[in-house]
């Protein structure tokens, strides 16, 4: 093989590598995915339909104050199916406009907003009845990118963090299990982080 052919082969290989890297880096920017996971019902303040139906009016009012809007709506649907929704409306509509105590910590995402890296939506810590917690991302909208992960970090630079896994979708509502030994008073900043380039897309600082 002469020198010209060797050069052509080298250029061809380089060109193929450039195309592969470009597709890997750029294609996620044009791909949008959505996921809508339901709020887990086995939360500390969740209550079985049968148990709730047997409560007095005062007991229901107290119980409803610790329900999320999703749980309230779920309960209303069940009573509506039984034709009992009329007696439930007053109880379940109390404080419907107020965020319930179900979520102990809530924060709003702040994106980098540089035209490429951005994130918006809510981050919530939801306690479960198993004495564990989940991180719930609601109404999330993130600029897509390669290798996006969800971290619980001590800061916005991901110098010390707990990896909750790869971002399931760049839009929608999603849940992430938090390891039981995680100190949420220490790891209190949620990051949407590009692992490939160590770049922040958005953060939410949880207030305890």
Write a concise synopsis of the structure shown.
This protein has 208 residues and is α+β, with helices and mostly antiparallel strands. It has helices at residues 3-26, 49-53, 57-64, 69-82, 85-92, and strands spanning 34-36, 105-108, 110-111, 119-127, 133-142, 148-153, 161-166, 171-178, 189-194, 199-205.
Keywords:
208 residues; alpha+beta; 5-stranded mixed beta sheet; 10 strands; 29% strand
Looking at the structure, what is the overall shape? elongated
Calculate the mean pLDDT score and round it: 77
Strand-residue fraction? 25-35%
Number of domains: 2
DSSP strand tally: 10
Task: Return Rg in Å.
Answer: 23 Å
Structural class: alpha+beta
Ends apart, CA distance between termini: 69 Å
Order of helices and strands: HEHHHHEEEEEEEEE
Q: Which stretches are low in confidence, meaning pLDDT under 50 for 5 or more residues running? A: 84-102
Q: Major sheet: size, sense and barrel closure?
A: 5 strands, mixed
For the largest beta sheet, what order do the strands appear in spatially? 1-8-5-4-2
Q: Compute the number of helices.
A: 5
Descriptive account of the structure:
By secondary structure, this protein is of the alpha+beta class. It has 5 helices and 10 strands; from the N terminus they run H-E-H-H-H-H-E-E-E-E-E-E-E-E-E. Strand 6 and strand 7 (161-166) form a beta hairpin.
């Amino acid at each position: 093989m002469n020198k010209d052919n060797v050069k052509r082969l080298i250029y061809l290989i380089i060109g193929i590598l450039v195309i592969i890297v470009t597709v890997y880096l750029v294609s996620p920017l044009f791909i949008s995915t959505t996921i809508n996971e339901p709020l887990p019902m086995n939360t500390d303040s969740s209550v079985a339909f049968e148990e709730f139906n047997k409560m007095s009016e005062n007991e229901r009012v107290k119980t409803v104050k610790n329900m999320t809007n999703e749980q309230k709506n779920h309960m209303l649907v069940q009573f509506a199916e039984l034709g009992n929704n009329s007696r439930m409306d007053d109880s379940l509509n109390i404080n419907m406009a107020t965020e319930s105590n179900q979520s102990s910590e809530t924060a709003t995402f702040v994106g980098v907003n540089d035209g490429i890296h951005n994130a918006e939506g809510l981050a919530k810590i939801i306690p479960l009845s198993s004495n564990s917690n989940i991180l719930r991302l609601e109404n999330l909208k993130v600029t897509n990118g390669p290798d996006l992960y969800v971290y619980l970090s001590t800061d916005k630079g991901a110098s010390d963090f707990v990896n909750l896994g790869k971002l399931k979708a760049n839009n929608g509502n999603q849940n992430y299990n938090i390891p039981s030994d995680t100190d949420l008073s220490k790891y209190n900043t949620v990051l949407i982080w590009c692992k490939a380039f160590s770049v922040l897309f958005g953060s939410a600082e949880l207030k305890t």
